[in-house]
Amino acid sequence: MKRALIIGGAGFVGNYLARQLVDIDGYETAVTKMPQEVCQIPGVEVFDLNILEKQAIYALLKDYRPDYIFHLAAQSSVFVSWKNPELTIDVNIKGSVNVLDAVRMLDYQPRILLIGSGEEYGHVLPDEIPIDEDNKVRPGNIYAATKVCQNLIGKIYSQAYNMDIMSVRAFNHIGPNQSPMFVVADFCKQVAEIEAGKSEPVIYVGNLSAKRDFTDVRDVVKAYSLLIKHGKKGETYNVGSGKAVSIENILDAILKLSSEKIAVKQDPAKMRPVDVPIIEADVTKLVDCTGWKRKIPLSCTLEETVDYWRNRLRSEE
Ligand code: A2R
Question: Residue 79: is its pLDDT beyond 90?
Fold first, then answer.
């Protein structure tokens, strides 16, 4: 039986990926979490690990000997990356180098999938949409710059040490249990709070004109699972829906899910210092390599995410 390790598995995506690997792929699976995080996933072993400690990564890998490594650990918020660039650079660049270097020191070759971001493409020109993997990267924020760096270093390790490393550039993924630091979860949570009478009927928003490529997190982890099996060493794959939707359209769809009359107000605190107008993936390379297909429509994900927040608020009462 294949053995998989998810580094940074206590976050939003980690939980879904663990379910995919255990329930669908049938792998023996472990995840790592930060010491202060709480993480319990049925059928999954959990280890404490800070990727800023290379020796600890090496010790865990030497002991657990995974065939597949999914490197998810990151400071994953663009917003936080403006507030705390040092931490973002430490975790996303130095931490990733620690992971790769720990793998290099092993006496066998696991396959590694590095999780990057569609944000790496940054200031995309209109004639570059949809964006394929060979597109120029022009990162527009600190988070994106760290992910570009991770991708480059992954390629260098793959070539220099003949390591089995692949990278993805994941576009926006959404679903139940995502942190309200991210736009869709933020809107869904605000709507649930208004319905529960916990706040006035006003939803606070940032830049509504930006267009992003949203995919259900369960479709995203399916792509990761296919890529770790079928992806080609040294290659980068976009993972996204292939269709950009404006934040305004997403907001309208979420508001339609509620019977409340909700006013929309702009909140300067939610506006980013630099915003990239449109990001949309060309996923031909992923589809050709793995046969992946998006299964869950956006409307379903939004409905489930609003319901998730309604239930969560009820359970907190
Ligand atoms: O920051 P925390 O305490 O929530 O922990 C996050 C963890 N993490 C670390 N793990 C090990 N060593 C570190 N120094 C370290 N710093 C942070 O990585 C969290 O549990 C996990 C990342 O999960 P999320 O922030 O929920 O990200 P998500 O949405 O699951 O995205 C997974 C990957 C990331 O590489 C994103 O940049 C990419 O997909 O889009």
Answer: no
